[in-house]
Design a protein that fits this description.
Helices cover 54% and strands 18% of the residues. It is an alpha+beta fold. Strands 2-1-5-4-3 form a 5-stranded antiparallel sheet, sandwiched between helices. A hairpin with a 3-residue loop joins strand 1 and strand 2.
Length: 612
Amino acid sequence: MRLKQAYRLGQALHKLLFLKDRPLTVKLLVFLALLVVVPLTVVGLISYSNSSASLKDAASRSSWQMIEQVKSHIEYYIRDFEIDSIKLLNQPEMKTMLLADSKDELQAFRPSIMQHFKDVAYSRPDISRITLLVENRAVFDTGNEMDMQLAAKLEQEPWYDTVPMNGDIKLISRLSSRGDSAAEPVISIVKRIIDSRTLEPVGMLIMDINFKRIQEIAYNVTVGRSGYMAIVDENGQYIYHPDPSMIGSKAEFHYADWMLQQDDGYFQSGKGPFYTFNRSSYLNWHLVTVMPNEELNRGVAYIGRTILLTVLITLVMAYLLAAAFAASIVAPIRKLQFFMKRVKDGNFAERAKVESKDEIGILTNDFNQMVEKVEQLMKEVYTSELREADLSLRQKEMELKVLQSQVNPHFLYNALETVRGMALEQGITDISKLVTSLAKMLRYNLSHASPIVTLREELAICCMYLDIQKFRFEEKLHYRIHVPEEALEQYIPKFSLQPLVENCVIHGTETGTSRVMITISAVLNGSDYKVTVADTGSGIKPDRLKLIERDLREKELSTDGAHIGIINVHRRMMHLFGERYGLGLTSQAGTGTTVTITLPLKEACSHDAISV
């Protein structure tokens, strides 16, 4: 059943895909359109994908080059301040001041220290503020802060404890406030001061740098037409952004946290901007270029529009060509179709006109010749069919008489009875039993009674057949019957079990060397009952089993070929009891075969079937 459904589904899909029931004109238009659209679409998609990837690679390479240049400038710029901080700390007055023990001594150095700070700040206008904290003793600040509260305030900021203890600098992006004025975003170069005697930190130098120079460097960078560059510190906050209000705020783009863990790369979230980034190991900053997706895909969109326009123009040309081509083919075919319809209606006098020498012209000419031959054959067939039918009936009668004359039942019965008597005289009881069983089987097969018998009668014949075979195969063949008493009086087609049992013997015992057990059983099931014939022989291979199942479904009664008995038994059961009854076959190579017969109960059998 499932195979039939799968076959029907395959046929339906074949019709749908190949337009099997559609006119030839429609097929030509559809297939030509597919020949144009499919290749161009594939080429277009591949070109679009490759163009998009190439543009992203080109944009990322260009952005990396710009980022490298800006990164180099900024690193040189910050290194200058680091050098200034080192020079400042190496001043003789600074070293002497750091060795002072009392606050009064520290205050004595304040004028000279502050002058050094002012000189450095004057020489570098981008320095906003210089602050020196001598731990728990003094504060030196160009913002004129002298109160130790400034030191306490700075120590509370989260970056304070992260400054390296070995005297290395640390860059911090923060807000620096001075008095009542608004806080200013600055980059602070922070460095711990180490006592040369104890190698312990004794202070902190903080040099605040405004963003003017960094803004000048970054502002000159152009990323496409509408892109921009930004600088993000290690915490993901903007150090530089074209919009000044964004400085100091958290970077808002996707994957910002992931980016902070990478050294370089690029990414894009959906249809969002295209980001390229590179990390400065010296500054611990990420320089990021941002290019809008619209600008990145401007070239790809142009390619897509060009491909789409090309497909449309080519499709229109293909349809025009297909229409002309279809007209030159379909018109002669329609004329031929018209004449075929006339012939189908019985008009054999007219002929189609041959207008060309191509395949359609040859087909038309062959059609005309075929019509002429059909007209002649119809006259001959009408008379010959009657003659052949009469001859066939006479031949069947003769064959029947020949068959009847070939076998004289009375002669066979008398001959077998003679053999049985001779065996008894010689005391050979086995031969007597074998001849008796053979005679009963012969009488059962040649009788002209009803085609339906009881299961008891059919089992008796099977037992006789198996007993005869046991004389031949001895211990190689065994059988057993498991049939309940209530099933013995059920109806079964005459001579239906013996062919199945014979198959078990032929394909199980004769072809093998091991012991074979044949089991016949029956079971009642609702309005039906099932008889099972099973053997432990060599079984049937899967491909052979499929062939037999197909023949059971499709073949009618057969007189030649393979597995004749099974097919004929199956068809006789269907003829007597209906389509839902018959044989079912299961087998596995090497383990045996099982044949299941499904039949109606005696009460459900029709009177007509019983009396046939």
